[in-house]
Amino acid sequence: RNTALSSGSLDQFRTDKVSSSYDPAKATGKWYEVLFADPAQVGASCQVFMNEYNSSDATFEQQISVRYGKIPFSQTYIFERDPSGEKGVYTKYLQGAKVLLQLP
Q: What is the pTM for the complete model shown?
């Protein structure tokens, strides 16, 4: 049983540092993934994440680009701040598909 989902809150899994001093604006910019453990990324290369933080509504837009062999693939995720206002807790969904699937 997934405790986070059954309790409805992920804030209990944050470190003390995130709880006290998390600054989402520091995640803005271009990031490269150098190591991953994700079955969906088997065969992927050149994983690049472009994060843009919107301070007016505390959301992130994250553009993900990878290559599967010679085939490029990209998606954009939106991270909305949890209604509790807790630092470092977001709901994530694929841009344009919020009604289909949201991940805590």
A: 0.76
